Amino acid sequence: MDDGWSGTAVPGAADGSGGAAWASRVDRHDLMFAEITEELVVAARLGDGDLVLDVGCGAGATALAAARRVGSGSVVGADISAPLLAVAAERARDAGAANVRFENADVQVHRLPAAGFDVVLSRFGMTFPEDPGRAWANVARTLRPGGRLAFSCFHDLASSEYLVLLRSAVATVLGDRDVPELDGPDESGPAFLAEPDGIRGFLAAAGFADVEVVDSAATFWMGHEPDDAAEFVLGMVPARALLETLTPGERSAVRTALTALLSSRASADGVRLGAGTWTVTARHAEHDHGSDFVATTSRLRSAAAGRWTT
Ligand SMILES: C[S@@+](CC[C@H](N)C(=O)[O-])C[C@H]1O[C@@H](n2cnc3c(N)ncnc32)[C@H](O)[C@@H]1O
Q: Where are the stretches annotated Disordered (predicted)?
């Protein structure tokens, strides 16, 4: 992934040359996902004093939204992307948010504080393609017994409405020729996340109960105007991979066709498309833990604001 979503390949991040373009794309993604963020913090039932972990926090929008709701509590955002974490820390400073901090941590293997959090949140960050089982067990371990999990994930990337419209625009231009398959990184994560039964099964195995998988009614805000929205869509990673298979003339025709399709979705609020996401909530099952867990929990809760690993 190379548009600011993953840890290693933010264009120009190393020397700062791509910083402005990349940072504006981060802001744009946060506008796109604003309804999801709101839905997530509501689903997590955050309250004063909660200790919250945002898994795969990226540039920190969800962590900051949570921090506004937990008052005397605190939020830790964890990610493996140093450039995104730097943006997150700067945003926290700008917002004067003293109850949030960001950590460079691979959530699959990092020694997260056992039972150190009341809530784990994640906006599209629970994918862990390498080893989901180990990662989710690690996340479960850092939630106190009875603690809450709330995350968003995609139905599957190919059915995202912006990609459906893009493929439709490409089909218009190619006529009889087949539309190339979407190729490149699939940010939607492992297949089990795309299906409610798969999500439920995986969460049960990781020690969660009361699992609810809700088909989100949230929309993605794609831009102010159809033209602006088309430019944004065409700059997204899966779109770029698809466009690379076309000639410059075909690419230009795709843009025109896509703008026309997006025009039908424009309103006073801008261009909005269906998100195609699940909002998942669950409770960390209490029976999985021994009696010494309560003592561990209270020790770690008092330390959690200042200490990251056990
Ligand atoms: C799809 S992005 C979502 C970012 C953010 N939650 C948002 O909605 O803007 C997934 C994020 O997970 C992070 N990530 C991937 N693998 C990770 C890991 N093993 N541990 C922690 N973060 C990880 C990536 O760096 C990326 O920022």
A: 1-20
